Please model this.
Amino acid sequence: MTIGKILLKIARTGILSEPARATDAALRQVSGRLSDEVLRRLGRALAIRHVDAGSCNGCELEIHAMNSPYYNLEGLGIKFVASPRHADLLLVTGPVSRNMEEALRRTYDATPEPKLVVAIGDCGCDGGVFGESYASRGRVANVIPVDVAVPGCPPSPQAILQGILTAVAGIERSTA
Amino acid sequence: MMQPAFPGIPLAPLHGAVPAWRAEVDARQWRATCETAHSTGGRLGALWGSDERDRGRGLGVRALLVLHAGLVCLELHVPEASPAYPDVSDLFPCAGRMQRAAFDLTGIRAVTSNNHVPDPRRWLRHAAWSETEFPLRRDFAQASGAAVDNGYEFVRVEGEGVHEIPVGPVHAGTIEPGHFRFSIVGEKLLRLEERLGYKHKGIEKRFESMTLEEGARLAGRVSGDSTVAYAWAYAMALEALTGTRPTERALLIRSLLLERERVANHLGDLGYLGNDCALSFGFAQFWRLKEDVLRMNERMFTHRYLMDRIVPGGVDCDVDMEGAAALNGEALRLKDEVRGLRSIYYNHAGLQDRCITTGRLAPDTAARLGVVGLAARASGLAMDARAHPGFAPYDRLQPKVASHRNGDVAARIVVRFEEVFESLRLQRSIVRSLGEGALKVPLNPAPEGSFGLGWVEGWRGEVLVALEAGVAGRIRRCHPHDPSWQNWPALEHAVIGNIVPDFPLINKSFNLSYAGADL
Model:
């Protein structure tokens, strides 16, 4: 009975996935750090570890939303993993609170090379409304090296996805 | 509104959208008033410290009591040389962490009648500042950098076969950071102890560098998932202290935004709760519906989460005739869709098996712990600030309060479903009744020292904001309070006796904010 309803609902819903945005080289903070060959391999099956380093949790809402059927993450070869030791890319939100600084560093160190870091949101890019203070270290790049930074408060799932795809796009592909 | 009765305590009414009073008390009255409030069914809403030495008044501590009649803000001042005040955590267990946070930030300590500090461990202070520095004192500029993290004493559970699982601060999913220390035997949970504060980023200090109007943007980012509730509570507090009254139209639009925030969050949680029971179908369906709501928000209000749409004095968005029709149609479609999914959830044996009796928070435990919001309503406590005291425009909208007595994961699912339907009904009623009126009215001046309170029922529970004006339209002190302060300790109780693999499900069924309580 229930299984029938489920199957019917799935059939009626259909496939909702939308194409991802083209990459944007302007989001890149550094270039040429990893070779195109390495990026090509990472980009085909990308394992992402999310680290909330002190956000308001707004960016987390959009990272969750990115998992909705509209964005077809797994179809793009992207998977969120449970440990930094399994990850190719760290997706970092927040201004980095001083109470999370060490945890973020350790997570970065636990991620095997070659690795990429994408900073998410206005706070990740420049500290945002929280800035730097006795309790906040401000932008993510103040604590670990950042490859791509995606502004927005919060950035949309499309923008976050674009940032991730930009990080794994080789130089010739992102300018093409 | 009838004034609460506290013999010998001079209550001064605070004007604003919710019934509220303030009272300056001495240490004996502080304790006595809390005892009276406790014995007459009152709760502790919030507790925070402040530095009043620049006014020659030493250090201050405030307690916001939530009574049937409304809010009562108690204010106690103590000399800097002996900064102690009477502990109330025996009456209100949720005061424990608030008192520890107040000490970490202002250096004012709760002590029992025999001069004992109930829990001397730090809470928000990790290693960013030292134990002799207090960030919310006005002469604190930067931490000395001398702080060292010399460990944190978790309560140890001993016995044959007991072992600990430390988890976090970085968790395995897309979750905010915090540390959970599980003491277990086999797969059974004996005890959970939470260690939070990892996201502390100095929000209260930040407020003090802002003007009253600028503070609205920061208030909307205390806990992003409740940005509407915070922005409204902050605006309510600022409007109270300036004696400003938004138009009926602006208030109705605010309530529309608040209900949209409630629906979006409940849909997302219902999806994740299905997912945590291995029903990924539920996740895909509910997150499709949530995404539709967010896209409608973007289209109608130019922000997916409605950030900064509520501003002091009114709103920064509008709903025209065409928009009202679109919202009405969306509410009807959603009602049908969610009804269909509810029938699947309620008839899915696997899901019901995982959720019924899991993570049970009994009504008496919930009441004793002072649990609020959705979690309280799922444990038999039918409280909802929209219904009582019913701040405008809810006094006219008359929302129905959802409640359930079982207090388990299943009950929190049921309450979410019922609240989604009620929110959709309210949204349709709101868009029908939008009349004429300015979207935003100018704020009256804020006299130095004026004080206002905000109290809004967000999707998770009540959000409280206490705001005091400084010189030249600046913020002297702002304390935003998240319902998670009350509900985190309840999670420690709800998991007892459950198995470790059910923890993610139980945790998700509460879905508490780390950011909101870490400040």
Summary: The two ends of chain B are 33 Å apart (CA to CA). Chain B has a mean pLDDT of 95. Chain B touches chain A through 58 residues (CB under 8 Å).
